[in-house]
Amino acid sequence: MTVTVVVGNPKPASRTLTAAVGLARALRPDTEPAVIDLVEFGPGLLSWGDPAVGEAARAVSASELVIFASPTFKATYTGLLKLFLEQFEGGTGLAGVLAVPLMLGAGPAHALAPDLLLKPVLVELGATTALPGLYLADRTFAEDGVLDAYAERWQPVAQALSAVSHSK
Q1: Tens digit of pLDDT per residue, the chain (168 long)?
Q2: Among 1, 8, 5, which residue's Cα sits nearest to residue 21?
Q3: What's the predicted TM-score (pTM) here?
């Protein structure tokens, strides 16, 4: 079982990263997630053919479960995440991947952002997005129980779907 976390926060070692790793571990407690913190690629995301970016894209495509995480930024996901998602072919680039959109923000105004903004892009790239997106308050997610409640509800579904989805 391969579980990967892709983080589009422009700050390294961010709360978004912490939340995404926590969600991955909660959904698939049997597997330690691989982490792709996009900020580490710097200008490599701006051009085609960067070896490190290509390797990361291949790792994501080969994963069974991927958490795509971003802070809400100007009411949507970050450009950093958008640049990485451009690496995948439309319709097939994420085929066989169970993708979960995760977004963090300062308040409830953007609570629908994971499902309304990030999920459609993941679907366009061929991912299976059967689980609802998760929105977390960036300052309280570690203690408010929202992540744990989500994982308790969706962990059995994620476990079942990730194996089925990945059998290309």
Answers
A1: 699 999 999 999 999 999 999 999 999 999 999 999 999 999 999 988 999 999 999 999 999 999 999 999 888 999 999 999 999 999 999 999 999 999 999 988 899 999 999 999 999 999 999 999 999 999 999 999 999 999 999 999 998 887 665 554
A2: 5
A3: 0.95
